[in-house]
Amino acid sequence: MTQPAHFTVLDTHYSAERVRAHAAAYRGRAARLHIIALDPTLLPGVHRMPCADPSVTLDRVSSTLAALVPELSARLDALHLEGIAHEGAGWMRTLSKLCATGARLHVDDLTPAQVKGFHDAGFRFDAAGTLAEFTGRRPQPPQGAPLERRAIVLGAGLAGCAASERLAARGWQVTLVEQHALPAQEASGNLAGIFMPLLAKDDNIPARLTRAAFLYALRYWDHLGRDFLGARCGVLQVARDAAHARVQREIAAHWRYPPDYARWLERDEASAVLGHAAPDGGWLFPRAGWARPSSVCAAMLDACGSRLERRFGIGPSTIERSEDGWRVLDAARGV
Fold first, then answer.
1. Which 8-state DSSP code applies to residue 136?
2. Gyration radius of the chain over CA positions
3. 104-142 residues labelled b (16+ CB within 10 A) or e (exposed)
4. Run of H or E including 307
5. Quick count: other Cβ atoms within 10 Å of Cβ 13?
6. Distance between CA atoms of 269 and 265, rounded to whole angstroms?
7. Residue 161: exposed, middle, or buried by beta-carbon count in 10 A (0-12, 13-18, 19+)?
8. Where are the beta strands (DSSP E) in the chain?
């Protein structure tokens, strides 16, 4: 029997012990184990956490279960939903649409409305009422046979190098194609770039996206264990004028960010940090800094090891579909 590609666990409580328990219980069920765990101690949003085991993906989510379920795109195989009596029952039918047939549900202390909601959504409980199985109400397509784990990545800028490293870490053989002789020669060719989040009072999409990317980048670089040119020296974003400063104070008062993430500084403190006049104050991002993109690319490519084949200096190229996959053609139409 072919091993499934993925096995996904949803847990309402994050702890390192629970992650280890899930890994021990479920890692052999599929090629990759994905654990999604609620963790209210983090900043809002999804936090991808690098794992020592490349076959395990861990997402810690700062959200309620009722708010998370409509946003999820996953095929759930095991659910550990303890302590959810306060979450209501309106999300259960939506949750059932994410579950694989035979998914196992572990619960405790459900309200009568929740027991009924799970039953109506297709879950069947044991006599103790703490374990249920999703029987499904409509047939689900079977998971396809595992694909050959080979990939072509076009372009050796930051995006291409990051994609190559993540694929290689997951066991893929990667061919990276670049028209130049070295990585990071075009859009990623700046001598330096600043890494820092954006802030917004309504926590809009740019604010959420840059927060997730910024925090993941810090964890990812630590996990990578390779040096690159740059520094986490902190970044001070000064207010443009008094009106802009008033808006920033409102953001600071509303969100009360952890001081190691973002801290609003008034004029005197901001000026002292900057070593120059900052008459309207500014935001200090203590863990932000700068990096040379080409050195970040080099570090990611080195981490790929033997799973990466570099095809650099081939000039302009095109990609086209072939009978058995894709192929890349250089300017002379050579493969």
1. -
2. 24
3. bbebeebeeebbebbeebbbebeeeeeebbbeeeeeeee
4. none
5. 14
6. 6
7. buried
8. 6-11, 32-38, 45-49, 56-62, 76-81, 99-107, 123-125, 131-134, 150-154, 173-178, 193-195, 230-231, 235-238, 263-265, 282-285, 289-291, 308-312, 317-322, 325-330
Cβ atoms of 5 and 146 within 8 Å: the answer is: yes
Q: Between vectors from CA 46 to CA 41 and to CA 50, what angle results, nearest 5°?
A: 90
The predicted-structure confidence for 204-238, as pLDDT tens digits, reads as follows 999 999 999 999 999 999 999 888 999 999 999 99
Q: At what angle do helices 293-304 and 158-169 cross, to 10 degrees?
A: 20
Taking the model in full, what pTM does it have?
Answer: 0.85
CA distances from 220 to 14, 123, 134, 172, 273 (A): 20, 38, 36, 19, 28
Length of the chain: 335
Q: 190 phi and psi, to 5 degrees?
A: -60, 150
- Each residue's pLDDT tens digit, 16-51: 999 999 999 998 899 899 999 999 999 999 999 999
Instruction: Say whether 290 sits in a helix, a strand or coil.
Output: strand
C-alpha span between 154 and 246 (Å, rounded): 45
What pairs with residue 230 in β-bridges? Answer: 291
